[in-house]
Structure formats: structure tokens, C-alpha cells
Fold this sequence. Notes:
The chain is mainly beta. The protein is built from six helices and 33 strands.
Amino acid sequence: MNTLSRSILIALIFSVLFGFSACEKLKDNPGKGRAEFSIDLPEGTGMSKSADSADIGIVSYHLLISIEDMNGNAVMSDTLIPLYAFGTGFISGNIELVAGDYNLCKFMVINPSGEVLFAVPVTGSPLSYLVNRPLPLVFTISPSRLTRIVPEALVVGNQSPGQFGYASFGLQIIKPLHFWTVCVLDPGDPLIMAPIQLTTAKLTVHVPDGWTYSFRLEAGINHLIVRGGYPYYYFVLEKEGYMPQKMIFSARELLSRTKEDPLVLKIPWGSNEWKMLVLQPGPDDGIDAMISNLQPDVNFGDHKYFEATFLSEPVLTVMRSNRSLIRFDLNQVPKSAQIRKVTLQLFYDLPIPFDPSYLSDIDPSTGLARVGGVLQQIVEPWEEHKVTWNNQPETIEANQVFISPFNLNVNFITVDVTRLFVPFQEIAAPNYGIFFKLWPSDMFPGFRFVSGDYPEARMRPKLTVYYTL
């Protein structure tokens, strides 16, 4: 495992996989295409080449690959492809295939001694969770074109072949991070004489680029391996009947934890009074829309962004104001429930250019930035595919929630919107959802989060309701 923990990142370039294209035309049989591997190796990978071998092109390393067609027929089986020194990296010999779709089922890098240095794990194998795309990996060969691909691989070290299962093209080496942890039920108050209890739980680990994995923690010391290479890790600790606990740990802190001194994850005893309902609807069951002042009679019920923006319209050279509406179905909350807390998690894919000066302009009376966005309670009915700027429903400012400009190293924010559902100011007004607009309306570029119509389900708006019975 020591060798595996020292794994590195390799960029292996391949053309046209899921839209990554190489446009070189080949002068060969028009019904065939070629694939060529080029490997750029950082220092310390275990692959090296002498000046002499680099000058004369002596083969020192090989790729070992297996390829099948989409019917499961072997096209290449345990085929060795030579790697040649090329500048600071390596380049492989070509393979030629009939145009079509294929599965890469095995991919290994072998050194001159016949040792496997790197391998891509197969789906379902014990180490497959460490890569985003385990084998088999689908790729396409186009007629008279050079194809390139980019999967990920792990340093083999002292791991057995069974740990990898087997498969894939292209190559990115992932550096695993090891740590030890234990989960406890903690009374919290030292005056309570109840002892701390070891317990089982579910731990979900997130990193900024989207990799996530859930572990089942035993009621004891757990040895965990996560994807390495990040300064911080985001933990969500869950146990049925208890409030989820969210935590952030640095990589340095995790690495310092050993079997003798594990990381202690605490679930407060008192958190078992609250229950939780998570709502994250998609295009079929969600209700949201965007409205725009430059197209006041046009409906944008299928807009993929939940936004409040004030940006220039390049064609018309005017400023466009966009606002958004969203409604969640709270009928799943038991009628006998008392809502304690409600949070709204919003993601963005590409942030609007950020100006740090907005953070420095603070209103001393509120402690908030003078510009931002507001979430307001909608008090009139509206329909997702009929609402427009000219027929937008009425809202109220009472209990509104302010969103200040922010500059974070993650692509989401979590906003406490409890007061929109449990009014801080008692008002007799119905609730038909949440209205998102800028405040003031024409002084700030705004926010562009994704909506329930966004194709990636995990990034859609998520409402979490905490309640007691």
C-alpha cells in the first residue's frame, strides 16, 4: 500500500473521446482509423530514459491493452504496444482499427523488467472507486482520423491483480490518501454522565472537482482510502434517526491520523430529535422558471439556470435583467411536523466574473454587502410554463433572505431559508414558492446557479427540511 499511496498523475493524450477531438486526417483506408498514445511523465513516476536511448529510440516500456467490439468480441487481446522516448515524454506505436465503437478492457504500463507500473481498475473492483471512469471504457474510431483518449490509472505497487479487476485507455494516475477514523455518539455536555459510545454510520467524502464516495463505518476503528491531491475534504456524517453532521478537514490533518490516534467523528446525542427531508427535483417533477425584462412576454419554463442577473445583452447593447422562481413540494412533510430548519443548496457550473470590491462595500447597520440577491416569498399562484416578466406573481419583503456576493473555492453555497417557511415576522400570506432577484436591481452582475432543468442531477437546487413530530 505504501507504493500505491505515492501514486502520481499522468496525462495520457488520446483523440476524440466523448467530444475530445483530434482532427488529423490520415491517408489510409477510409474505413479505418488509428490510435496513438503519448505519455508525459512527471518526476518520480518510476519511468525514466537515458540520453542514449532517447537519441536512438530504444524501446524501454510497453503498453499492454485488450480491446473488444460492442458485441464482446476480442479485437486486440493482451497486445503489447511499444513506447518510444520523445523529448520529455513517451509516444507509442500506432494501432489501426476499423471505424466504430469499442471497449477498452485492459490497460497497463510495463517497465523493461516486465513489471506492471500502472493499471486502470475495472468497474466493481475494490479500487475502482478511486477513479472517475473505471474500465471498460467506450471510445470511438472515426474513418481516416487519429483517435485520442484520457482515462485514469493507479500505481500498482504491491497490490494484487484482483484489487484492480481490469481494464482502460488513456491514463491519469491518482494518489490515494490513507487515514484512520472512528465514529462516536457524543453526549456533548460534560455534566451528562453517559459514556461516549462507538457507533456505525455512513460517511460521504466530497472533493472540489466532484469526486465523492460513501463509506459504511463500523463501530470501531476504520481504515479509509480516499482520492488524494486536494488540500481540503468535505465530510457528511449520517446515521439514521440523527441530524447529519457536516465537517471540513485538511489533507494534512487526515494524513496525521493513525490507527493509534484516529480521527474522531462525533454525532451529538441530542441531534436524534430532528428528522430530515431532502427535496432535489428534476425536469419532470420540479417547478421553476426564469423571466427576463428584454423578452417580457416570453416564458422560460425549461431554462437550465436559476439566476438573478443584470448583464449586458451583446446583440442589443442594452442591459438584461433576469429573475427566477422555484417551488418545492412540501406535502411529504408529515402534517404533525414542526419545521425547525430549512436550507437551500445552490450550485453553479460557470460563475459570473467576480469583482472583490463588492465584498468590501458593507452596510454597517446590517453587516452585509450593500449589493446582492434576495430570496422572497411568492404569495400568488403561478405556472412554470406560463409565467413571464409581464405576469410575474406578487412577492413580499417580510422574512426575505439576503445572499451576499461570495468568492469560494467550491461551486455551491448553502443558504438558511428557514424564515421563508417558518416566518420570523408573523404574516397571514400563502406560500407559492421562492422568488430570486437582485437587490438593488441594477448595480450588481448577480448570480447564476443551475436550475432543476440542469442535466447533472447532483447539481440541481436541493431543499433540506429538518423537522420534529
